[in-house]
Amino acid sequence: MTAPAPDPKSVLPATVLTALQQFTSPDALPPTGLHPFSSSPEEMLSTLRRIVDTTNQAAVSLNAHLSLPLSNPKLLSLYRQHASISYAVQQSDQNMRHVVNSLRKRVGITFGEDVPLERTQLIDWFLKRLLEWGTSAGMEAFNEPESDRRIAVVMGGKVLVVDIIFAVDRTDPVNPVIDVSSLKTAYAIPNSTADSSTGNSISMDGFLAGAIRAFLKEVQKDDAIRDNVEAARIGSLLSDYFSYLMKLDHLALSEGDGGLRWFTVIDRMAIDVENLASREANVLINTERGTTVAPLDVFLMRAHALPLPYLTTPSISFLTYLSPLAYLKLLRTSPAAGRAAPTPHLPSLDVPFQHLRSVLISHPRPPGITVATLVLSPTPPPAHHADSTLISAIDTKSSSTLVTDIKIDFIFPAAREVQALQGQQFTWILDFTEGGKYPGVVMSQSRMREIEFVINPFNEMGGMDNVPMLSSFGAGSWVDLLFNRDAQAQMSPERYTAVYTSPNSVHPPLQLRLTAPEEPGFILETIPVRTLKEVWSILEIVREQCWLNEILTSCEWVPEGPNTTVLSDEADDTSVTEDDLQAVLKGSVQPRSIPVNVGLPTPPPTDRDNLFADTDMDDLMGQSRPNHAKITMSTPERPPISGLVEIAVTFDPSRPRGVAVGITGAMGVDVNVEVLEEVCRRGGLMGLPGRVWKKAHES
Fold it and tell me: What is the pTM of this model?
């Protein structure tokens, strides 16, 4: 009888060195963070399990070697020599594997579309490329011969049918032009009558037609200005769109007559959320004086996230946050004339929707913009999710209070019920990376805990609480992760310094000193969701974190150390004039800098974070978020008054500008809080101590 073949998983490595060295390569661990809301949490968990198993095996092996009589010096020397040679061989092999894997896993590397040089061949080449994209996604695709300057292309699956009519202009025989004349999507239910076919989705039609037009516009440019790499990028997006639609097609086919919900859920939800956004914009317009449109930045601070159906995928995206600089650039680049008439169900904003969408889909996307996209991902639902029937009982209150009578509640179709595609499960996720094209959002532990409570309020594990703050080992805080996302810092600094200079020189430079909070950070990438309320609650939490991140990154912070440049109050020369003496006597001398201590208060843990707290189900129902993001700044009082001036800026959607400014101290100084809130809206939050100082010296 032949012995059974050994299980590859049970085969131990040859040496302890080879067992441990497999985890020392740069790509041994996934680049994403160790938390449930990374792009691949299951991969990280599997790697950690292998590390634990290997560590146990190495411990057993080392304990067994303790009993060996290693008293021969020559034998010990041979052991050392063997270990050194093995390490060099393993290191060389590891480096080569890392280089090969890095080259194979490159993202965004393309050599451009192979556009034919003969313009007369361009139409046939494009039709061939279009059919290739469809067939590679699993579609049946064919085109009809050109007739009356029209070319019809039909693509589709078992349920989805895409009918495209192209118009061909051969006025110039040497340079023919092709464009999309019409595109219609239709849905048919198998095993039913012809009347079962529903109408098409105009939003889907416009989205696909716009993507094809963008590709045609790029490839039909003159050779001198055509960008083949950009054309290849658009073509890759079109291929991804068709693949995504075929996922929905398989799910719709597996459900039979009720399968059309996979195609119609986005359109039905988009109409309702756009109507809500329009109502919220009207409330803002009524509060603004002398305007017929709502400011986009104020809308994003006070209302729900702005819905943008079919922005970057055949789904819906949400504009979550816009930095003051990004908003200013949008305003300055908006067309001054020719503004389109307002659409009844769309909010009236000061940035036209057409211009906004064109900026958001540009590549690369301008900095300071946070967009989340709801997509269906072919990943199983995470094990830490609670039952969806229990989730519906939790109704968290929104911090956006512009419209109170909101009766919108969408539950996304659950793919786990149909077990489509040979048992493969699907999950709706909220993606902040646009499929890995952009980095995620740096989040603090407390806000990650709030997100965890939104999607799983019955969690008894306290997943985000189990991550300790290991500052002594250089783990750092979320501020360190924000300032040095790409750097591998060996030690986390306790404080950062920066210099804020007034653009108009209305006050001396501010010497900012930020104490890093003792709270770890994570990079938020994707979140599994099941209802629209979960999406809104998560986006409100992310919005506050983005507000904090943009304020902090508006200054150039450096770690505080012995070589840190500090603005001194001592003059460069020692000469003193009579005017200087009189200024000192009157208390009107202007310092060279104003010291400001910046703090980021960490919200205290609530009762819901304590497993043994006295909290019943009634307290969970309708529980609102008690703490908003806050930045505190303290600066000395003006002489001869002793003490400090405390300035606290809190994210507050109930305020006209979305922030609340509170000042403690500054005795005898008349400060208009509304003016300071407008300054915060325009990105001058870090300059508030200088404005208070100026007011104090004017009074």
Answer: 0.82
